[in-house]
Design brief:
Tscrpt_elong_fac_GreA/B_fam, transcription, Chitinase A, domain 3, elongated, transcription regulation, DNA binding, 3 helices, Helix Hairpins, RNA polymerase binding, alpha/beta
């Protein structure tokens, strides 16, 4: 049973690009490695062949997962989302109520999440807590490290 998930256009395009790379670069390289390893003869004791088969399994698994994700994704139209609320695609500026430190996050799909770029998934604890909130609201978030308390300073798109 497949469920649909929302994704930004950028996230969808990132998945398409990765799928294309896997199918046009990785898959042919693995096939070539398998053919080369087969040329050594006895496959039962051929470590190179076993490694190539393992790599093939990994590549095919990734291709399958990305294909399924693309098939079940719904690209959001960010222009249809209220610009004053935190939803997928929003950039949210927060102030830590304890330290006064400010941080800015962009709410993205799981595929696009990259903590180093301050892109957090709407499925993460922080992302879920921010969904639907407006500037001026306070949020308390329980995370594995404890409780976080933020004030939402601003919300923007793009």
């Amino acid at each position: 049973m497949s469920t649909h998930s929302y994704i930004t256009r950028a996230g969808y395009e990132k998945l398409e690009k990765e799928l294309q790379r896997l199918m046009s670069v990785e898959r042919p390289a693995v096939i070539k490695s398998l053919a080369h390893a087969r040329s050594y003869g006895d496959l039962a004791e051929n470590a190179e062949y076993a490694a190539a088969k393992e790599r093939q399994l990994q590549v095919e698994s990734k291709i399958n997962a990305i294909s399924q994700r693309l098939a079940s994704s719904i690209i959001i139209d960010e222009s249809m989302i209220p610009s004053d609320k935190a939803y997928l695609g929003a950039t949210v500026r927060l102030k830590d109520k304890k330290t006064g430190e400010e941080i800015t996050y962009r709410l993205v799909s799981t595929v696009e999440a990259d903590f180093n770029e301050n892109k957090i998934s709407t499925e993460s604890p922080v992302g879920r807590a921010l969904l639907g909130k407006m500037a001026g609201e306070a949020v308390e978030i329980t995370v594995p490290a404890g409780k976080l308390s933020y004030e939402i300073l601003s919300i923007s798109r793009g």
